[in-house]
Amino acid sequence: MPTEPLIYVVDDDDPLRDALCQLLEMEGFVVRDFADGPSFLAHVQPDDTGCLLLDVAMPGMDGIRVQRILKERGCDIPILFLSGHGDIPMAVEAVHEGALDFLEKPVPGLVLIAQVRRALTSDRKQRVTQAEAQKARQRLGLLSPREREVFDQVVEGLSNKEVALRLGISHRTVEVHRNNLMRKLQADSLADLVKLAVLGQG
After folding, report:
1. pLDDT per residue over 18-72, tens digit each?
2. What structural domains does the chain harbor?
3. Is the pLDDT of residue 163 over 90?
4. Is residue 40 within 8 Å of 10, Cβ to Cβ?
């Protein structure tokens, strides 16, 4: 995986693509460019960090199709669509499909750089959240089946007594399971347990 974020530029307009790459490189970004969707898709990896500048209307495979294939592959790289005036309805559709934004050509340099920085910030935040969710799922995986049952009831807001009644076990047994799961999950409070439950669903 790259140690620094990549800015992918995918556009069939060679002069425009070259100009975008030059501008981004002058700002210190690492850039990879492609003239069409298939060549980009053959290169990109699901865990690549950065963002994608993607032309919405290209011959053959358009940007919307590229976006959908990325989603199918589990690649969550933020997408900024590039659209000509006549392509705006497609770009709006792309945003509804999950793209970060769309930029109408010609894109002013300052606007482009600002949006790329915004996309990179979004990517970093998303990856932190994904890492926290993975860690939460790993911790929850340490619980025994009965501890997981108790955990699920506790994060619903049930008291130990209510959990005991629902699961048909003694109050003391619930306390033992609760103490064990708190230790395994490295949790100090009910709030910690609820946070783990939310993250574990991510």
Report:
1. 999 999 999 999 999 999 999 999 999 888 889 999 998 888 899 999 999 999 9
2. 6-131 (3.40.50.2300), 141-200 (1.10.10.10)
3. yes
4. yes
